[in-house]
Each structure stands twice: as C-alpha cells, then as structure tokens.
Amino acid sequence: MNPSKIGLDDVDLALMALLQKDGRLSNAKLAEQVALSETPCWRRLKRLEADGYIEGYRAVLNRKKLGYGVLAFVQVGFGSHTGDAPLRFEEMLQAIPEVLSCHNLTGECDYLLQVVAEDLEAFGVFVRDVLRELPGVSSIRSSLSLREVKVSGRLPVGAAGR
C-alpha cells in the first residue's frame, strides 16, 4: 500500500496499527509510541476519524465463552435475481444477530454468510426457521468451522501493524 496515494503518512499508519491491536490505548500512550506530543496525536486521531479511516472502536468478545459453540459459513443461492427479493433479503439480514457478516459474491453462490449458533441443533433450527424463510432463497449449503486458525479484523496498515 502506498500511504501517500490515500493521504496518509507513516505516523497515521502507525496510529491505526496500534489502535487495531489495542483500541483502549490512551492518547498519551499513542503519542509516546509514535513520538508525537499529545495534542498533535489527538488532532491526527480526530482527522482519521472525521475522514472515515477509523470508523469506530469496539471490544472483541469470545464467542465460545458467550455460548456460541458453532461457527458456520453458509452459502445462499437465489433461484431468480429479478424483482426486489435480493434487496429484501439483504435488508432482513441486517436484523438477524446470528449473522456476523454477509457478502454478495460471484461464482457458485450468491451470498456467503458467517453465522454463529449455540450448538448444532440450534444451527439446524436457525437454518430451517430463519434462513429458509428469507425471500428469494433457493439453496443453502453450510460448512462448519472445525477450528479457528486465524481470527483477525486487522487490516495490514504498514510495518507497525505486524
């Protein structure tokens, strides 16, 4: 990535990389780690937020400790792409908390969902009672995660992010 092409310098990238690792870092700690005084550091953070590079801050929760033992990747196919079914499908997905992410794809399926459930029985009920009832759905294929090898929402924003 060429930072200058997107209006960022190495300090901006370092700030974002540090915040991706620990979103609770204080402005004082951030400033210290990127060799800035606190006021310029704070201004940079506010600019990164205002310009949309930093969209928000959140805690990363442990799904297993919260009782979600199943993580599934669900391929959803549509019989017909005409009419408002795809739009209604996408709108309805927004209100389903078990769906962690949804991607509209090219290839064999139309959508790929990442779904959590308490256990296999709960996942089966979810597929039957929720997913199959969504507008336009003609096929569902699921793959269950046996083990999470890497889980990260961090973007590669320079050497400081490694």
List the helices and strands and how they pair.
Elements: H1 10-21, H2 27-33, H3 38-50, E1 70-78, H4 85-93, E2 99-104, E3 111-117, H5 120-129, E4 137-144
Antiparallel strand pairs: 1-3, 1-4, 2-3
Helix pairs in contact: 2-3
Question: What would you say this structure looks like, in words?
Answer:
The chain is of the alpha+beta class and 162 residues long. The chain has two domains: 3-59, Winged helix-like DNA-binding domain superfamily/Winged helix DNA-binding domain (Arc Repressor Mutant, subunit A, Orthogonal Bundle); 70-144, Alpha-Beta Plaits (2-Layer Sandwich), CATH 3.30.70. The protein is built from five helices and four strands; from the N terminus they run αααβαββαβ. It has helices spanning 10-21, 27-33, 38-50, 85-93, 120-129, and strands at residues 70-78, 99-104, 111-117, 137-144. Strands 2-3-1-4 form a four-stranded antiparallel sheet. A hairpin with a 6-residue loop joins strand 2 (99-104) and strand 3. Helix 2 (27-33) packs across helix 3 (38-50).
Any descriptors?
4 strands, 2 domains, 19% strand, Alpha-Beta Plaits, 162 residues, alpha+beta
| Helix and strand sequence | HHHEHEEHE
Q: How would you classify the helix and strand content by structural class?
A: alpha+beta
- Count helical runs: 5
CATH architecture of the largest domain: 2-Layer Sandwich
Name of the CATH superfamily of the largest domain:
Lrp/AsnC effector binding domain/regulation of amino acid metabolism (RAM) domain
Which strand-content bin applies to the residues? 15-25%
CATH class of the largest domain: Alpha Beta
Number of domains: 2
Mean pLDDT: 92
Distance between the termini: 14 Å
Biggest sheet strand line-up:
2-3-1-4
Poorly predicted regions are none
Gyration radius, rounded: 20 Å
Keywords: DNA-binding, Transcription, Transcription regulation
GO cellular component, one term: cytosol
Protein name: AsnC family transcriptional regulator
Domain HTH asnC-type: 8-69
